[in-house]
Design brief:
Length: 914
């Protein structure tokens, strides 16, 4: 009969322990009721504790301990409070005393259950205690015995039997198995101890039960908003005197929550004397509590994964590649993982670095973030790691510079020093530290840029994985929550990647985000801006169309679309349509935006006038452009761009006085605007005052020494003032400067050059060099640039010619420099050097009509008029409106007629045209 009782007791003990570790509180309460129904003296206190624990935890799972639930918790936790209060103080004493007075068989020693196989192998039986690993079995027939819940919170782990002190149980079965075995062989020792110290045993048992009950009562008081009461219970339990030693899984959570509650309550309870010293001491204690709670939480979750044999399937090793396209399921995650951690522990994990930052200790906050992220990921920390990684990236972005940054391998403990398994802890290392990632293949960032981008890309991968694809109303809250988390990561990615001009990576990030960004305007806006910055102009325009559909009242993106049409895509009519949409969106009180809308309208009309070859239409369009620019000037008289484009419009109409007036106004409004300086120099040179123009150009170059536009004008002015030899020196310096500015960019640029050729129909051919705040309005033909592009593609397919890798505009700028140098060589009669320059330009872009024209000039200089005529005709075939080619073709024909005064010259010309 005794054997059956032992088996039932062991089964019940194991079942209760398993249910507590699995947080199956309903079953814990049922088993506790069965235990209580056995009516066995001494077990009632244990049953009361288990029932109180189960009621408390089950209630808090349904109603998290937040301020909004305080009033409800005061009534909902009344039963839990009643049962836990029965385990401390007088109620427990009365229960124990009653059992002792009415019991029998007190001479029978309690049976200590120890599996010798587990003991020698280092395995420990499950325990309910906070620091102990063994307890007296529930199968004990001694009705005086009260089962121990907590064993030796701060006693020596090598306790032994002593007649003059209360009984203690060995807590290290591996190192003390012989001593325990000796106690089994000496039953008279147990009998004598029980006979002489019965009351002491009961007091110790009551103390151990009370400690666990006090810790849980502190959690209850925190849930009902009694923060001072929670601190009082923790003080009574002696939380600050706990020794760091290996704990069972359930005990890890209890202690972690106790430290977290102490820190949270300390934040809410004011100091009696608010002195600077007390505030610093309080802050230090709170940080210590939160750090202990965080480490214990991570360790608990790691141990929990081991117990359930379901390690995280989304750990760092199995994180999907950056090319993942989103969640594998349209439904949101079940949320069971997040329930494992709870509100208290999740808050405690994030509070320590925040308190460090409030105290001005940013380096310690960063170290704390790194230590938490270095811990091996568990199932319940997946969402939390996303938050921690994003917060650390934000701290590095906002509060750390490249000079103050300390990489993970410097400024303290090495990154891998604490990456040891908790089962292989060195002597001196705390058993309360979680297991960290370790190995030789771990990537450790070397600078702040690497760490920020690494953190954000990992966060982005996790955010995409957690995205909710289902559009069902029942998942709206989960979908919005996941999207907000992802958006926060995307905003930080925009800041960090845009600073370093890594638009290609940013575009890939937003391409993955499109899968779960249905009707989400913010992501579409960011995507459109990234495409525009990455020179994916055609795609950017399509995305901006979607943004306008989502935000029809916002004029900003209409103006951006118009700028793309004007400056990159050569869609002037469509750009004007976008400007009309922007004007409709603007309200009268939005004077700045309204003025900018009319400015864009004037720019578009100027471009249309330049591209329209009929004089009457061109004159009408310029008149409309003048009206729009005048309207913009009335709405915003302090906009330097309005004055600049008014000056440019007057200059194109040959009204130099008015142009000079407006360009000076533009420089008055913004003296450092390089385009206004450039236009002023050109206007002065148009008045044949080359020396003054050159002097102003040199003064401007002192302010902008790397401006190739101004250097180009300087070379032209030097050629007019000093001759070609001086101008050639400037041209050579331009080539050197180009190498300095673009060589590194071209060598490191991985962007496919073909994408630029296909997506960027250069509206203004090779002479378009506009800055970021002004669209160029050169009168080069759109059709010419497209013909050049088509011919270059044909040439690349039929010959060994391959487009140069890298940004298209950089190579076009080099062509311009080579052609300027060739022209100067031609004027100084250095024809062989000019031919070499033309050859260099042809190797970059052979089908440009500018190169054809320069070849014609070279042949004309050599008096090879037939070859010159052919080159000019080729240039006109590409761009029929190239005025320089037309003028020189006429001049060449005049020489042909002079050489051949009969009609043979005309016949030759007509035959060539045929």
């Amino acid at each position: 009969m005794s054997g059956k009782t032992n088996i039932r007791g062991n089964r019940l003990e194991t079942e209760i322990e398993r249910s507590r570790e699995e947080s199956n509180w309903k079953k814990v309460i049922e088993l506790a009721e069965h235990l209580k129904a056995r009516n066995q003296p001494g077990l009632e206190t244990l049953a009361n504790f288990l029932i109180g624990e189960g009621k408390l935890e089950s209630y808090l799972e349904e109603n998290p301990p937040t301020e909004s639930n305080v009033q409800r918790a005061r009534t909902g936790l009344a039963d839990a409070r009643k049962y836990l209060m029965m385990c401390i103080g007088e109620p427990a004493k009365k229960t124990t005393t009653g059992d002792h007075e009415s019991g029998t068989g007190h001479d029978s020693p309690p049976q200590v259950t120890l599996d010798p196989i587990h003991a020698t192998a280092g395995h420990r039986r499950p325990s309910w205690g906070i620091t102990g690993h063994h307890k007296l079995s529930l199968s004990s027939t001694n009705h005086h015995w009260l089962p121990w819940i907590t064993i030796g919170l701060h006693r020596s782990p090598h306790a032994s039997i002593d007649h003059h002190r209360p009984l203690q149980v060995i807590t290290d079965p591996v190192n003390n198995s012989q001593q325990l075995a000796a106690e089994h062989r000496w039953p008279h020792l147990w009998n004598e101890t029980l006979r002489t110290r019965k009351s002491s045993i009961h007091v110790i048992d009551l103390l151990e039960v009370s400690l666990d009950a006090l810790l849980l009562l502190s959690k209850l008081e925190y849930a009902v908003g009694d923060y001072e009461g929670a601190l009082a219970h923790l003080t009574s339990a002696g939380l600050d005197q706990l020794t760091e030693k290996t704990l069972p899984t359930r005990s890890l959570r209890i202690v972690a929550e106790s430290y977290a509650i102490k820190g949270l309550c300390s934040e809410r309870v004011p100091l009696p004397n608010n002195s600077k010293y007390q505030r610093a001491e309080k802050s230090e204690k709170m940080i210590r509590c939160f750090e202990l709670a965080g480490d214990l939480t991570l360790l608990y979750l790691q141990e929990q994964d081991k117990l359930t044999s379901t390690p995280s399937t989304h750990s760092l090793q199995s994180l999907p590649a950056a090319t993942t396209t989103g969640s594998t399921s349209p439904l949101p995650p079940s949320g069971l993982e997040n329930k494992k951690i709870g509100v208290i522990l999740e808050t405690a994990l994030q509070r320590a670095p925040i308190l460090y930052m409030k105290a001005g200790q940013l380096d310690k906050a960063i170290t704390r973030y790194r230590s938490m992220l270095a811990a091996v990921e568990s199932t319940a920390t997946q969402h939390l790691r996303l938050t921690l990684a994003r917060q650390l990236a934000e701290v590095l972005l906002r509060g750390c510079s490249e000079h103050t940054y300390q990489p993970p391998t410097q400024g303290g403990k090495h990154f891998d020093e604490r990456s040891k398994s908790s089962s292989n802890l060195k002597s001196g290392e705390s058993p309360w530290k979680p297991q960290n990632y370790s190995g030789t293949n771990l990537f450790v960032p070397r600078n702040i840029n690497e760490e920020i981008i690494l953190l954000l890309l990992i966060s982005e991968a996790m955010a995409v994985r957690e995205a909710v694809l289902s559009q069902s109303p029942e998942f709206k809250n989960a979908r919005v929550h996941a999207f907000d988390n992802a958006t926060a990561v995307y905003d930080l990615l925009c800041i960090s990647l845009a600073r370093r001009k890594q638009f290609k990576i940013l575009i890939e990030v937003f391409e993955r985000a499109m899968k779960f960004s249905h009707e989400e305007s913010h992501v579409w806006q960011q995507f459109g801006l990234a495409l525009a910055c990455g020179r994916k102009d055609a795609r950017a325009l399509l995305v901006l169309q979607e943004v306008h559909r989502l935000l029809p009242a916002q004029p900003h993106y209409c103006l951006l679309a118009a700028r793309l049409c004007f400056q990159q895509l050569a869609k002037i009519d469509e750009g004007l349509e976008w400007v009309e949409k922007a004007i409709k969106c603007c309200e009268e009180r939005m004077s700045f935006l309204s003025a900018r809308c009319y400015l864009y309208q004037g720019m578009g009309l100027m471009l249309s006038a330049n591209h329209d070859q009929r004089h009457s239409n061109s004159h009408t369009l310029r008149a409309k452009a003048l009206e729009s620019l005048t309207r913009a000037q009335q709405l915003d008289s302090s906009d330097h761009l309005v004055e600049f484009y008014l000056a440019l419009l007057y200059a194109q109409n040959f009204h130099l006085v008015e142009a000079m007036h407006h360009v000076k106004l533009a420089l008055y409004l913004r003296s450092d605007h390089p385009h206004s300086l450039h236009l002023l120099i050109l206007l002065i040179s148009a008045q044949k005052d080359y020396e003054e123009a050159l002097e102003l150009c040199e003064a401007a170059l002192k302010e902008y020494p790397d401006d190739l536009h101004l250097m180009y004008v300087r070379a032209s002015l030097e050629e007019a003032v000093f001759g070609g030899e001086v101008a050639l020196l400037t041209a050579r310096r331009m080539l050197t400067l180009w190498q300095k500015l673009y060589k590194e960019q071209l060598s490191s640029d991985t962007t496919d050059s073909q994408s630029y050729h296909h997506t960027n129909h250069d509206t203004y051919s090779i002479f378009n060099m506009s800055d970021k705040d002004a669209a160029s309005v050169h009168a080069e033909s759109v059709a010419a640039s497209r013909v050049e592009q088509a011919l270059s593609e044909v040439a690349s397919s039929l010959s060994s010619y391959q487009p140069k890798p890298g940004p298209h505009q950089a190579w076009l700028l080099q062509i311009q420099i080579w052609l300027l140098t060739a022209q100067l060589y031609i004027k100084t009669d250095q024809l062989s050097e000019a031919a070499h320059c033309i050859q260099e330009a042809s190797s970059i872009f052979p089908m440009s009509h500018h190169i054809m024209f320069m070849k014609g000039l070279l042949h004309e200089k050599k008096s090879e008029f037939h070859e010159a005529q052919t080159c000019y005709q080729n240039a006109l075939a590409i761009n029929p409106y190239h005025l320089k080619s037309l003028r020189h073709l006429v001049s060449t024909l005049q020489w042909v007629v002079f050489i051949f005064p009969d009609d043979s010259a005309l016949d030759l010309f007509l035959s060539n045209q045929a």
